[in-house]
Amino acid sequence: MSKTGWRAILHVDLDAFYVSVEAKDDPSLKGLAVVVAERGPRSVVMTASYEARKLGVRSGMPVSVARRRAPDAVYLPPRWDRLADVSNRVMNLLRNAADKFEQTGIDEAYLDVSTRTKNVEEAAVLAEEIKKSVRDSLGITCSVGVAPNKSLAKIASDRQKPDALTVVPFDDPKGFLAPLPVSVVPGIGPKAQAFLEDHDIRTIGQLQKMSGQDLLKWFGKTGVWLWGVVQAEEKLPIFEREMLKSMSVERTFGEDVDDFENVYAQLDTEAKELADRVRRENVEFRIVGIKVRFKGFETFTREVTLPAFTESEETLRHEARILLKEFEYKKRPVRLVGLRVSNLKREKEAVTRLDEWAGG
To answer: 261 is in which domain, residue-wise?
Structure first.
């Protein structure tokens, strides 16, 4: 491929990141079934080692189910400060290796390396060097996809795990996609997959035969994006923005509040404000937390990890109310209530979540 029009994008995905950090700090965990999850009756699996996954444990699964499938696994709570520290160090390393850099979560990022490489071979060599740097300097592994655009790079990095490098053939990216199931396309979830299967479309190759007009009719403007992805024509830019670590809002009442219904009402208001900010920043959250300060300045915090990333105001309000309910019995005047979301992840740049449309 000539330099004219040359574009090389890497998607770097840290392998089982939460578990990898635990195993780095405690080598005795290597090779074991390890599950990372918050403690509590409603907790869900955040991530699991590949050994635990072989036993049927999956992210988003209730911990009660995971314990039935893997009763002898090691169950650990996430250490957020440690995870953030390692993530920051990895992202700084990746940022220095790229022309343009976009972090999309605590454990993944896109790198535009177009001016640092002249062809596919050089892009693959650079990807190997990045993998080695992450492994040597931080003691964890990553999987990398090399492709001419972001969607293909993301799909490629998911193809082989862990510690893998997958290079899309730049001269035939459509051929690379054709045999893959439609479910590998970012944004095609269970509902959209079921919709496509109802139309006898199970592979990307079958989807490639659909016209843009057909996809537009089925999925609205999202169909335009989908056509670009499956035809390997997607040209989304790398967004060079700092990744937020958390977002929060809180209010100190003018006078301490005795009626807890007023505290709930304030929390609902904060949920709306915070959800609006989440949407403006084009992120999704996985953790919801509250802060409650009583008269006398006694302060409590609580948080919950959700089964999946979301931007939903309804989910935010619902989970916040559940967390707040723990403190209702205290029957003490409330001075401050706050709401926080963290473990943020950048949403796809286009309207890609087809499941919100499917069946709607």
So the answer is: 246-343
